[in-house]
Amino acid sequence: MIEGVTDLGGFKFEIRYDETRVNVAEIRTGPFLGSLGADVTCISQLLLGIASYGCVADGVPPPGPSGSGVVASIDFLVKPSPAGKTELFLQACGAADPNGAPIALNGCKDGSFTVNPTPGPPAETPPVLELDPPNQG
From residue 109, how far is each of 32, 119, 120 by CA, in Å? Predict the structure, then answer.
């Protein structure tokens, strides 16, 4: 989620996570960057415990979208481990207008989720993920 931007042309971020508890299964582009009809080109890199993702809008002249919206979503694959809270740390967040000029952001907001095992055999019933609200720091 990006908030309070004007004329968005691209974004990037890294997210650190506990690779002993989860893996990134997929990162998907959200609807906000392409909401004015631009094609969106993205690049991702998955390393052990860190996922990097960035996208730019192509083919449509400025202005880019303004306001707040979902720029990406991440699916995590939970590894067999004890129930508990898993922290997610956003870093290297950035945004730019369609001409490449930086857009000031109100920081990166870390988050977390809690893994609660459900009753039944683990092979038949996957764990349930409950998202905790992001930290406001």
Answer: 18, 33, 35
Please state the domain count of the chain. 1
48 inside domain:
yes
Residue 33, both tokens: 């960057």
| CATH label of the domain that carries residue 29 | 2.60.40.680
The pLDDT of residue 32 is 96
Buried b / exposed e along 88-105 (16+ C-beta atoms within 10 A): bbbeebebbbbeeeebeb
Q: Is the residue at 22 inside a domain?
A: yes
Nearest CA among 22, 71, 24 for reference residue 45: 24
pTM score over 0.85? no
